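Re: adenosine-5'-diphosphate structure - here you go.
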Amino acid sequence: MPTRLASDSLAQKYRKNDTAAPRQAVQWMNVSDDEDRTRKTPFKVHSNGQTNGRKRLRTSQNGCATSMPPSTIQEQRNSLPIAKGKAAIIEEIRSNDVTVLIGETGSGKTTQVPQYILESGLARDGLIAVTQPRRVAATSLATRVAVEQNTTVGRLVGYSVRFDERSSPSTRVKYLTDGMIVRELLADPLLTKYSVVIVDEAHERTLRTDLLLSHLKSIQKQRVPSPDGKGKGKERDASGRQLKIVVMSATLDAEKFSKYFAEAKILYVKGRQHPVKIYHSATDQMDYLDAALRTFFQIHTDQPPGDVLIFLPGQEDIESLEKSIQALNRRLPSGRMEVLVCSMYAAQAPGQNAKAFSPSPSNTRKCILATNIAETSITIPGVKYVIDTGKCKEKRYLTSDTGGGVSIC
Ligand SMILES: Nc1ncnc2c1ncn2[C@@H]1O[C@H](COP(=O)(O)OP(=O)(O)O)[C@@H](O)[C@H]1O
Ligand SMILES: [Mg+2]
């Protein structure tokens, strides 16, 4: 496996070499066009849209959501792979208390399903909660869905993350981190104000999601008398606030969740919005940061406009690469597109992270340097190229060591 060389920062390295741009291009081989997954498919919501890709990446070539006229946004909603299955999804959620929904990243699960539930009246006068593993996802998704509902965030669509809440008595769809909904359980153990709880990105399986799933299972039993154990065709409680649970994920590990909820129905949404081409480096890269830098400039100098998203393991690498890109960009011959570098990582202030979502100024290529917080859940408008170093930081328990730590894998 390629490892990072312990060396000076990249910026220093290239300053010393005094090169106009990194010299050696990274060689790439095309390893796949989109490929359909084979699935065990109890139920399918088909679309005639684009082919599937295997890589989880969140990009949108649609420009900034907020600057689009409502008609375009509605057209965009209708063209999502999930739109073809709207009626079937609603019907399944209506007739089952627990539904597991699996679909490719970008198919429209997180933004559309809460709106379908809202529009169908399934939630009655209760709220629809959508849980997210990360705060940046909760806030950006709420903003997007508010735009789709032609309103501003905090009214019909709101969010709740640690130290920040945007909601009002008129809020019906609330995006919140799993930590926040677990916190709400302390004050309201039956989550009575919610009619539907959507557990999104369930495959991430944090301690909090597991805790939430087990609570939801017992809350559902308490809020609805359940003679048949599956919640089908029963008498509902007088308030009409029986709890519906929807578990959503982009992976194929649906059976586990279904089994946990007494063989709950599994729905598969087929289709992805954009075709994806994947290239792997033809040779081992000794230094992933250096390889990412060279690849970025290969794209910047050779490829048509489009923003670039680069995945890196952590803040230190992000800061180092940002300096290197800026230093090298100053040496490119004039007349090229400008480069705007934005960073995204958990420890960065939310306002700084939000910069990545702003549209690029004209004649500028935005380069977003992100940890895996941008890997799933969020959509960054304008991204056309993704460079993945394949590395991330992982917490591990090391028995042979003093107990634990974070390592780059
Ligand atoms: N912040 C955003 N800006 C622009 N488009 C967005 C934004 N969020 C979502 N979208 C659009 O909605 C589509 C579906 O996103 P989403 O519902 O999050 O998909 P899923 O949850 O299935 O991965 C995206 O592919 C993109 O076209
Ligand atoms: Mg999603």
